[in-house]
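Weekly puzzle thread! Below is a chain. First person to post its structure in token form gets bragging rights.
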Amino acid sequence: MNGSLFFLFTIPFHSFCYLMSCSKLFFVNFPDFLTVVINYTYTYKLIMARRFENLKIFNLSYTFLLNVYSMLKLLPQEELRNIFSQLQRASTSIVLNIVEGASNKSNKVFFNHLQYSYGSCKESQVLLMLCKDLKYVDEKLFLKLLNELDDLTASIFKFMNSIEKEINVRNPSFPFYVGN
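Winning reply:
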């Protein structure tokens, strides 16, 4: 019984007040009430875990985006409609896909958005290489941005693997064999 009461106090006070105001809670006995609170606590923690501001990949991607924006100022005027625009969209897409995916409660949708972010990382990498090879940025700035992007890409890849494992645990696939 004491272990069950612990769950009651792990949710915020405003959440407890909300549970107390639900009409169906007045018609259940004490053990059912605790079950509702325990289930609500789990749901609450799951939602809080998906806040994009708390994700390492969001913070890495946002820092990378800010650094790319400051680098874009170095590009010549004739690249405004080509490299500038492409790199701006690709680096912005990394962040926005993480945010959009994290905002969805489906892990499969989140995984898809992480794949888009990963692809945008690869686009950004090629565009940064092009900027260096065309001598629009110096080697030092290029290496700084490339290292940030490598850390970000690796983090997204690791995060994708963990989400994929969670998807596979919840929805295992069973092989079907066709007999002769």
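Puzzle host: Confirmed. Bonus trivia for everyone else. The longest helix spans residues 139-170.
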